């Protein structure tokens, strides 16, 4: 059952990159992301109301809500949505898969919670080399594409900072409460950005972008995050984190099948190098035990 849930999570989060791309057709990025989390927060609010449990926020809860709401549901998703206007959904997912590398660096140099082994350091170096390859073909990448890639990396950095913060503070925080308030805060920030920056941009609602919005809100946010926290409780955290290697492959496959997205040969090599680097950095070291 847990294996099926794991595969289900990878499929959902792998497909969200495609859904974001579809949802952006006719809808400005900050407005689309903001409406996504308005719906998600509303669904979670109904679930919390049905649970009938009083909500009391501690100081630590508030720190976690601010971190998740501002870093992930606002800055991270604003960057990702904006990036997907300029680069393919698969490439955005690949760049975002550098998150474990950034998390390892932050955990070592910022919070001192982890040490950098030789293999992890090598994996980070390989990942950086792969990202460099993605930027390499200057004759094929315009200024807007480079900005999109930088935005995706910025989103990954924001998510990494939040993850390190969560590891430090969120041990006893209710995930449903955390996501409810975090998504609400993120939605408010995104819609404020949209009001100031996207006032002159028109909105053209279609069946496709409405379905994409609902899918992202319900499956990509509520169901995916609920499944994620369920797996964290029953599976090894390292195993769960390996979805960052599978998700880009799903995103690339779906982008190729449904959107006919293509990548240059050098970019494809860069993608492979990034995945190798991420794998080397986060896969657990085998330990050989003698005796029983």
DSSP helix fraction: over 70%
Structural class per helix/strand content?
Answer: mainly alpha
Rounded Rg: 19 Å
The residue ranges in which pLDDT falls below 50 over 5 or more consecutive positions are 287-292
| Form type | globular
Count the strands? 0
Largest sheet: none
The total tally of domains equals: 1
What do the pLDDT scores average to? 84
Give the topology string: H per helix, E per strand. HHHHHHHHHHHH
Topology, please?
Elements: H1 2-23, H2 29-51, H3 59-83, H4 89-96, H5 99-109, H6 118-135, H7 143-169, H8 175-197, H9 207-234, H10 237-241, H11 243-259, H12 265-282
Helix pairs in contact: 1-4, 1-9, 1-11, 2-3, 2-8, 2-9, 3-7, 3-8, 4-7, 4-11, 5-7, 6-12
What does this structure look like?
With 292 residues, the protein is an all-alpha fold. The chain has one domain (2-282). The protein is 77% helix and 0% strand. It is built from twelve helices and no strands. It has helices at residues 2-23, 29-51, 59-83, 89-96, 99-109, 118-135, 143-169, 175-197, 207-234, 237-241, 243-259, 265-282. Helix 3 (59-83) packs antiparallel against helix 7, helix 4 packs antiparallel against helix 11 and helix 5 (99-109) crosses helix 7. Residues 287-292 have low confidence and may be disordered.
Task: Describe the structure concisely for a colleague.
This protein has 292 residues and is an all-alpha fold. It has helices at 2-23, 29-51, 59-83, 89-96, 99-109, 118-135, 143-169, 175-197, 207-234, 237-241, 243-259, 265-282. It has one domain (2-282).
């Amino acid at each position: 059952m847990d294996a099926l849930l794991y595969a289900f999570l990878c499929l959902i989060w792998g497909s969200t990159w495609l859904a974001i791309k579809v949802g952006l057709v006719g809808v400005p990025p900050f407005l689309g992301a903001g409406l996504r989390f308005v719906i998600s927060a509303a669904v979670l609010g109904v679930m919390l109301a049905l649970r009938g449990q009083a909500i009391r926020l501690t100081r630590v809860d508030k720190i976690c809500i601010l971190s998740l709401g501002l870093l992930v549901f606002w800055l991270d998703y604003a960057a990702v949505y904006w990036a997907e206007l300029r680069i393919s959904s698969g490439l955005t997912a690949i760049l975002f898969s550098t998150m474990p590398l950034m998390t390892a660096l932050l955990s070592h140099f910022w919070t001192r919670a982890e040490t950098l082994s030789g293999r992890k350091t090598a994996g980070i170096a390989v990942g950086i080399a792969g990202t460099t390859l993605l930027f390499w073909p200057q004759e094929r990448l315009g200024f807007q594409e480079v900005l999109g890639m930088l935005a995706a990396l910025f989103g990954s950095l924001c998510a990494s900072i939040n993850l390190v913060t969560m590891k430090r503070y969120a041990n006893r925080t209710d995930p449903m409460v955390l996501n409810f308030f975090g998504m609400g805060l993120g939605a408010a920030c995104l819609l404020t950005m949209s009001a100031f920056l996207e006032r002159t941009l028109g909105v053209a609602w279609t069946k496709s972008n409405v379905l994409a919005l609902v899918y992202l809100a319900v499956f990509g946010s509520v169901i995916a995050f609920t499944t994620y926290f369920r797996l964290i409780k029953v599976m090894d955290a390292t195993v769960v984190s390996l979805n960052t290697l599978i998700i880009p492959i799903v995103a690339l496959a779906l982008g190729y099948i449904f959107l006919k997205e293509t990548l240059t040969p050098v970019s494809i090599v860069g993608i492979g190098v990034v995945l190798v680097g991420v794998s080397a950095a986060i896969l657990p070291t085998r330990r050989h035990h003698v005796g029983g």
